[in-house]
Design brief:
This protein is α/β, with parallel strands linked by helices. It contains 15 helices and eleven strands. The strands form four sheets. A five-stranded parallel sheet has the order 2-5-8-1-9. Strand 6 (114-115) and strand 7 (124-125) form a beta hairpin. Helix 9 runs parallel beside helix 11. The radius of gyration is 23 Å and the shape is globular.
Length: 316
């Protein structure tokens, strides 16, 4: 995380696009806002758009705006988020959900620095710094044909990978204290609320959890624990009751273990794909640190990792 923060500070001073990758709940929007606040554009607007929450038929209007009468229901002209973020920052969350039809116009907006409203004939110049985020691997989305390769390389000028909480040894204890302080501040004006603290056993129970929902899950677990705890101290039972059951992985397992055995089944190709997937993830999460990547994969030393990378023709 120190490397992530250091890179974010360096890139904040530039106006180049930033791509933030990380699992849900790792704090991608928080990092994007920190980059904006540390940039020369800090006094200009930061506009946030969730690409996965917009109906496909409205995505171009949302991004680029529209003129009156451009389509049924367009009773007046409306600016899009590019114009709203002019001279500031445009944060596009879940960029991997952007429909391919809209990706072409989005690429042009990035390359040319201008947009054309739906129904308009003249382009409008915009000065926008784009930060995009995704909980997917965009390079894998490109390989699968779901994301344009040229747009990927246009966005991936500065790539920052946020590691999941389970790979941030030592951070969970710090976050427990910081987020519990936040919960106490949020609740201090509520009737009969008593500030909470964690017992040793409760802290141990929470530290043992793998946190698949990452920091978001951790914060909401502490909020639940504060509600369930009648006194001032959250004990182990309160912490256990506040934890949600882990989502079933049966569906994920079935995608690998439940393949139909037919004449075209290729076990070697399947295993090769799995190996490449986890090798690429480990190298990305470790940001090229071979010792850490080897540890994440359960290898005894970086030499073993190098052998695997050579075998699958992968470069760190």
């Amino acid at each position: 995380m120190q490397r992530v923060v250091a890179r974010a500070r360096r890139v904040a001073l530039r106006s180049i696009p930033v791509l933030i990758e990380g699992e849900s709940g790792t704090g991608k929007e928080l990092l994007a806002r920190a980059i904006h606040q540390a940039s020369p554009r800090r006094d200009r607007p930061m506009v946030t758009v969730n690409c996965g929450a917009i109906a496909p038929e409205l995505i171009e209007s949302e991004l680029f705006g529209h003129e009156k009468g451009a389509f049924t229901g367009a009773t007046g002209a409306r600016q899009g988020v590019f114009e709203a973020a002019d001279t500031g920052t445009l944060f596009l969350d879940e960029i991997g959900e952007l429909p391919k039809a809209a990706q072409v116009r989005f690429l042009r907006a990035l390359q040319e620095g201008e947009i054309t409203r739906v129904g308009a004939t003249r382009a409008t110049r915009v000065d926008v710094r784009v930060i995009a985020a995704t909980n997917r691997s965009l390079s894998q989305e490109v390989s699968a044909g779901r994301f344009r390769e040229d747009l990927f390389y246009r966005l991936a000028v500065a790539v920052i990978v946020l590691p999941p909480l389970r790979e941030r040894n030592g951070d969970t204890a710090l976050l427990l204290d910081r987020l519990l302080e936040q919960v106490n501040r949020e609740s201090e004006t509520e009737p009969c609320y008593e500030p909470k603290k964690l017992s040793v056993a409760a802290r141990k129970r929470l530290l043992e959890h793998s946190w698949p929902g990452n920091v978001r899950e951790l914060l909401n677990t502490l909020r639940r624990a504060a509600v369930w705890t009648p006194g001032a101290t959250i004990d182990a039972a309160d912490a256990r009751d506040a934890l949600l059951p882990r989502p079933s992985r049966d569906a994920d397992d079935a995608s690998i273990l439940g393949r139909e055995l037919r004449e075209d089944f290729d076990l070697k190709a399947l295993l090769d794909n799995v190996a490449r997937h986890y090798l690429e993830r480990a190298v990305a999460v470790s940001q090229g640190n071979k010792t850490r990547a080897a540890k994440l994969l359960g290898f005894g030393n970086p030499t073993t990792l190098n052998n695997w990378l050579k075998k699958y023709e992968l470069e760190p």
